[in-house]
Design brief:
One of its GO terms (biological process) is long-chain fatty acid import into peroxisome. By secondary structure, this protein is an alpha/beta fold. Helix content is 61%, strand content 9%. A hairpin with a 5-residue loop joins strand 2 and strand 3 (417-426). The structure holds adenosine-5'-triphosphate (ATP).
Length: 620
């Protein structure tokens, strides 16, 4: 047996551990050690994502696609180049003072050319850097989104995360929105925070040269004060950014649901109630947004930049008043003042820029918390799934033709007993119907059959599930993909990977009594999104799902009230046809009229008990 990866599932009842529901999060987020740890996790993902076998500095094309290393280096290199140009532009006034005070016309004209060159150079380098920053943000978004999406949309993980990890709100929002915002704040902050220390070191040295120790010392005290103040100001903003994004997700989800259930709401005239709910949700969201604006106010009204300009003249004043430049004439002196004040001003400017990043840093910290929290939840889910597979194996057997529940006990995620010591063997042709009152656990048994819910005791054996060929599940609410009619039939395979002829589609439509559908759509390959739900009534949608079964002809068809909205004639027709194709039925139904299509009847009582009986053959 493999070694356990954690002690999470140590208890006798792993299901309770697995699905414990956190209350509404009351955590606080800040610019602390956890932020640093989470941020470096993202950095590692960006420079060396899992699956990249190359060194992160490798120049191999595939390695370059999977890492931001080279793009990042080019960006930083470009930023350094721009700073060199800035330095020479900064010295221009000093040289002009000197040329003008000495009335050197030839020198003045000759100096104009490099000046124009420098200014154009800066303009071009700024637009190149802007462009590169855009590419960097794009790549950060692509790498992070692909990584999270691959970990989220995968068997069992998505189901467990969405249904059992309520503490992680809106995973969709985190993947589609928060990563994008994170990439943008990273782009804004990255060059500043990487280059600023280098510039600080260089201009400290230059400033020391001008004013001695006292100049840089004054600037450093100024910076330390600024950092302490801004850190205190940012701390509460990180939290607000996190919760604003949480409520952003809730608000968007509420609107998605309004669209999804538009007809039910309209039938029950629930618009006023729904509008009140939407207002509440918006108001909570805006409260957090307002709180960010409020808390950012002192950050924005800092006077560091202005104090900095006074400080630069104070530093230049030191050598002047101490007589260091007493031997210089006024022309030379104004040139020296200009040059030296640029050096100290630029050092102060760099510090100011670092302090000004505080606002952006609080955004970055908020988005980092949202994205990495999802990653951490996915780690937990993977860990739980792995531990459950060790303790309660769910067997998919390539050779097996049989489904078997062996002494299975099931608890719901809220620890309600669903079934105890359940034994059932389903051979080919053993058509089974599960019955019982609402909430007694019929669908839960199918969940265990699909491996979605682990059993707390016993084992489930199923034939290998290959692309819908062995078992197909049809839930009560049909799942229609955003795609063409061909896609609907071929699901879960992508239509382009298999061949279904037009003739075959027509014949399937005829079998499920949907031939008229061909007249409603442009072609079998024309993609529709939400329109499927409008074009087909619920009963027609259920019929279309049977076309999927008749195309794949699996060994077992698991029908969970999959005919609940059909007329009886169509229901009879589809059940008969399914049996004619040699498909074994495992049904859940409240319609006694369909019992006759089955051989055995499993009745659950809702208290964990069950009985199995034969269904006499009745004339069709
Ligand atoms: N995701 C979940 N979290 C917590 N409890 C759940 C979850 N899904 C189902 N349950 C609970 O498990 C129990 C069995 O539910 P199940 O869906 O299997 O009932 P059912 O017999 O199929 O009901 P119906 O006839 O109404 O479809 C119910 O009490 C339900 O509340």
């Amino acid at each position: 047996m493999r070694e356990r990866r954690s002690s999470v599932v140590e208890s006798l009842d792993p299901l309770i551990e697995l699905t414990s529901h956190d209350p509404q999060p009351t955590r606080t987020y800040s610019l602390d050690y956890i932020f640093v740890k989470r941020f470096f996790r993202l950095v590692r993902l960006l420079f060396r994502p899992p699956g990249n076998t190359y060194r992160f500095w490798s120049t191999h094309r595939e390695a370059q696609q999977k890492s931001i290393f080279w793009l990042y280096c080019t960006f930083i290199f470009g930023s350094c180049g721009k700073e060199v140009l800035v330095y020479f532009v900064g010295l221009m006034p000093s040289r002009f003072y000197s040329l003008l005070t000495s009335k050197d016309l030839t020198g003045f004209i000759a100096y104009m050319f490099p000046c124009f060159f420098l200014v154009f150079g800066i303009a071009i380098s700024l637009s190149i850097l802007n462009f590169m920053g855009g590419l960097l943000a794009l790549k950060v978004r692509r790498l992070l989104t692909e990584h999270l999406q691959d970990r989220y949309v995968k068997p069992k993980a998505m189901y467990t995360l969405v249904l059992n990890h309520e503490s992680v709100d809106n995973p969709d929002q985190r993947i589609t929105q928060d990563i994008d915002k994170l990439s943008e704040s990273l782009r804004e902050i990255v060059s500043t925070l990487i280059i600023a220390p280098l510039l600080v070191a260089y201009y400290t040295w230059k400033c020391w040269d001008v004013s001695g120790f006292i100049g840089p010392a004054m600037i450093y005290v100024y910076f330390i004060l600024g950092t302490i103040i801004s850190r205190r100001l940012i701390k509460p903003i990180v939290n607000s950014v996190f919760y604003k994004e949480l409520h952003e997700g809730n608000f968007r989800f509420l609107h998605v649901r309004l669209r999804q259930y538009v007809e039910s709401i309209a039938f029950s005239s629930g618009e006023i109630e729904e509008n009140a709910r939407a207002h509440n949700s918006l108001s909570t969201l805006l409260t957090y947004q307002r709180s960010i604006i409020n808390k950012s106010f002192p950050l924005n009204c800092n006077s560091f930049a202005y104090i900095g300009s006074i400080l630069s003249y104070m530093i230049v004043a030191i050598p002047i008043f101490t007589g260091v430049f007493d031997d210089k004439d006024p022309g030379e002196l104004s040139s020296i003042i200009s040059k030296n004040s640029f050096v100290s001003m630029y050092l102060i400017y760099q510090f100011t820029v670092i302090i000004e990043q505080s606002g952006k840093l609080s955004d970055l910290a908020g988005y980092t918390a949202r994205v990495v929290e999802l990653l951490e939840a996915m780690d937990n889910v993977d860990n739980e799934i792995e531990n459950i597979e060790i303790d309660y194996p769910y067997r998919e057997d390539d050779q097996s033709e049989t489904i078997e529940f062996e002494n299975v006990s099931l608890l719901s995620p809220r620890s309600k007993v669903v079934v105890l010591g359940f034994n059932l063997k389903i051979n080919k042709g053993d058509h089974i119907v599960l019955t019982g009152p609402n909430g007694c656990g019929k669908t839960s048994i199918l969940r265990a059959l699909a491996g979605l819910w682990p059993c707390t005791k016993g084992r489930v054996h199923v034939p290998k599930m290959k692309h819908g060929k062995d078992i197909i599940f049809l839930p009560q609410v049909p799942y229609l993909v955003h795609g063409s009619l061909r896609d609907q039939i071929s699901y879960p395979s992508i239509a382009s990977t298999i061949y279904i002829s037009d003739q075959e589609i027509r014949s399937l439509l005829q079998q499920v009594h949907l031939s008229h559908l061909e007249g409603l759509i442009e072609s079998f390959d024309h993609a529709y999104a939400q329109e499927w739900n409008k074009m087909l009534s619920p009963g027609e949608q259920q019929r279309l799902m049977f076309a999927r079964i008749f195309y794949w002809k699996p060994r077992f068809a698991v029908l969970d009230e999959a005919t609940s909205t059909m007329d009886t004639a169509t229901e009879d027709h589809l059940y008969s046809l399914t049996k004619e194709f040699g498909i074994t039925l495992i049904s859940v139904s409240h319609h006694p009229s369909v019992y006759r299509f089955h051989k055995r009847h499993v009745a659950l009582d809702g208290h964990g008990n069950y009985t199995i009986g034969d269904i006499p053959d009745l004339p069709a």
